[in-house]
Amino acid sequence: MSTPAIVVFDLGKVLVDFDYAIAARKVAARCKKSVGQIKPLLEHSRLILDYESGRLTRREFFEGVRGVASYGGTMEEFSAAFADIFTPIPPMIELHAWVRRQKIPTYIFSNTNDLAVEHIRRNFPFFREFDGYVVSYEVGAMKPDAKIYAELERLSGRRNAEILYMDDRAENVAAGAARGWRTILHESPEQTLAVMKRFGLP
Ligand SMILES: [Mg+2]
């Protein structure tokens, strides 16, 4: 099978792991709600969806959480607690570096927010090494919405089987496959590396 023209990486649970419980513990320490009440607010609520869809600014997201949780800290404290939940996944970062050494352009394709991106860019040097970044809060749409896939195609100038895309969420992978992209449902670094070999990489 021919080598893809570009490789597109999901971020969360592919290149970096995350745990919203870390943030929830710090936020809960400054309000009257429990960790169990705060964690879903940060991870799955309408507030976080609106923030990651670009409908709320970071200030508006913070004000929303503060209102719901009666949070007593500052926006700076909240931002630091909210963003510091990531740990890099070394074999996948090595895979990305290997793809770049083959002169194959790479892209970040993520449902995320500006606090997370700022934190990851500052703390994890690998994140600066992509050719392009297609992120939900800038596009105004989240995977698996077709709009964000179209933006990746527009930015890269690539489409169909020229694109190899890996993501840990089946619905996101399915939306890519529906456009003719080659896809990998990422379950573990070992498995993804094995599938990459079938695509002529590494
Ligand atoms: Mg993910």
Q: What does this entry look like structurally?
A:
By secondary structure, the protein is of the alpha/beta class. It folds into 2 domains: 124 residues, Rossmann fold (3-Layer(aba) Sandwich); 64 residues, DNA polymerase, domain 1. It is built from 11 helices and 7 strands. The chain has a 5-stranded parallel beta sheet with strand order 5-4-1-6-7, sandwiched between helices. β6, α10 and β7 form a beta-alpha-beta unit. The longest helix has 12 residues. The chain is elongated. The model has no long low-confidence stretch (mean pLDDT 96). The structure holds magnesium ion. The site of magnesium ion has 7 residues, from loops. Magnesium ion binds next to loops.
Note the topology:
Layout: E1 6-9, E2 16-18, H1 20-28, H2 35-43, H3 46-52, H4 58-69, H5 75-83, E3 86-88, H6 90-101, E4 106-110, H7 114-123, E5 132-135, H8 136-139, H9 146-156, E6 163-167, H10 170-177, E7 182-185, H11 189-198
Parallel strand pairs: 1-4, 1-6, 4-5, 6-7
Antiparallel strand pairs: 2-3
Helix pairs in contact: 1-2, 1-5, 3-4, 5-7
Bound molecules: magnesium ion.
Residues 10, 12-14, 167-169 line the site of magnesium ion.
- The helix/strand series, from N terminus to C terminus, equals EEHHHHHEHEHEHHEHEH
CATH topology of the largest domain: Rossmann fold
In the CATH hierarchy, the architecture of the largest domain is 3-Layer(aba) Sandwich
Bound molecules: magnesium ion
Percent in strands = 5-15%
Shape: elongated
State the fourth-level CATH superfamily of the largest domain.
HAD superfamily/HAD-like
Q: What is the CATH first-level class name of the largest domain? A: Alpha Beta
Helix proportion = 40-55%
Uncertain segments are none
Give a short account of the largest sheet. Answer: 5 strands, parallel
